Amino acid sequence: MKNLKIFVFGLVVVGLTFASCSDDDDLVTQDPVTDGEGDGDDNDDDAPNFVGAVYAMTNGDGQVTGTNIQGPNVIIAYAREADGSLTPIGPNPTGGNGGDFDGGEGLDPLISAYALTKTDDNENLLAVNAGSNTITSFNINEDYSLELVGSQPTGDLGPNSIAYSERSDAADGLKGIVYVSNISRQEFLAGGEPEQQGSITGYWLLDDGSLSPIAGSTRNLANRPSAVQFSPDGNWLVVASINAGAAALASGSEDEIVVYSVNADGTLSADQVAGATSTLRGNTDGRNLPSAIGFQIVGNNYVVVTEAREFQPDGTPPAFPALQDGSVSTWQIQADGSLTPISMDVRSGEGNTGRTACWLDFTADGNTFFVSNAIEAGLASYSFSNGAVQLLDQTAALGTGTGGADNGPDAFANTEGWIDMWITDDGEYLYQLFGLDGTIGIYRISGQSLEFVGEESGNLPDTNTQGIVAI
């Protein structure tokens, strides 16, 4: 999915002012409409009946020369009808800039999952601004339009993933807790992915939708983070890593996931309480290392992780054709925070047909999940039972992608680049972001199968998008 060259990033340029994306002719502005209200006819049976929404993030509108900044970041909002179709209801600038910390082909520029996320009650939307080193919060209105609340700095470089957990014990005015992962600390920026080490930091989400920094919450990481998530019980924060086992890592860490305990005051344990990997450097199977990106924690604290298998067994960065078929591995978080392995390295394809397993989401019954393979532009389906997983269909859905026969430099040019995905709260539809096509694919879920419904395009940039949420 990435060329993973060792390249030198320039320092993030500050003090620049960028024009608002509201002037971008490529972004459709449309007033929210629900059940014909506001049109003077309360009996308009032909008015759209919106049942939910989809939000996708542009992550900017084009590279700023000499920087990793992608320009003004915008959330495109879509109202969702009962048949899964989408109606654009307007762009929503975050007030910050997108970024590109992958330095290459415009696919998965933040190398992350959950660059955009929501609260469980569907009242708030949270977004990263990787080019501004900030995060932004929105309130979600009843008509699914967005109301900008404000932004907060992350204190580090390249925020790329956000996690939220409701806090029933929170003081008056506090709704829940938010943690964001940052791609790199300044001292590890120049060396690129192989040697980067990032950080995480926390905020309170207030009842009005604003964010308040949690004093003393920042923790430095031994790896470059790719995603961050809370356990369902809110007691643990898990961070996944893209460069676990990389030979260039000064920390020497081989942990693809690490666990922190969450304190009552919103801070974390001073150090990780556990770490684990499915594949160690120098393994006898000759497997590439588990470049973990997307993951979820479900049920009784089962951690389900996608693994892109990019860094080579000796810890050196890969290049085509060194990528291997990706996989899924699972653990269970125990009462003391330790990790018990369950299913390790369950492959998402064979013969280089599932090389970039990077994102996943579960069906409503929790018995099935789908994994997005980016270069192949396809979805693989897995069964799930108490942490044990099994591949059901490596091509549960398939778009225009690059198959195992083409491992050359044209791999990115010939694919739609399926990246982030999200299944609706009602479990009926899966929305797939095409990272190299500016399109959202719409799929109806039928048990363990997917039915293609259609596509929505014309509102997102063709490249460098990141993040999608569905309600």
Can you walk through the features of this model?
The chain is mainly β. Helix content is 0%, strand content 43%. The chain is built from no helices and 30 strands. Strands 8, 9, 10, 11 and 12 form a 5-stranded antiparallel beta sheet that branches. The relative contact order is 0.13.
Radius of gyration: 21 Å
In whole angstroms, the N-to-C terminal distance is: 28 Å
The helix-and-strand class reads mainly beta
| Main β sheet profile | 5 strands, antiparallel
Question: What is the secondary structure topology, with strand pairs?
Answer:
Blueprint: E1 50-57, E2 69-81, E3 86-99, E4 116-118, E5 124-129, E6 134-140, E7 146-153, E8 157-166, E9 174-184, E10 199-206, E11 211-213, E12 219-220, E13 225-230, E14 236-241, E15 257-261, E16 274-276, E17 292-298, E18 302-307, E19 327-333, E20 339-341, E21 346-347, E22 357-362, E23 368-373, E24 378-385, E25 388-398, E26 418-423, E27 429-434, E28 439-446, E29 449-457, E30 468-470
Antiparallel strand pairs: 1-2, 1-30, 2-3, 4-5, 5-6, 6-7, 8-9, 9-10, 10-11, 10-12, 13-14, 14-15, 15-16, 17-18, 18-19, 19-20, 19-21, 22-23, 23-24, 24-25, 26-27, 27-28, 28-29
Question: Short summary of the structure?
Answer:
With 471 residues, this protein is mainly beta. Helices cover 0% and strands 43% of the residues. Strand 6 (134-140) and strand 7 (146-153) form a beta hairpin.
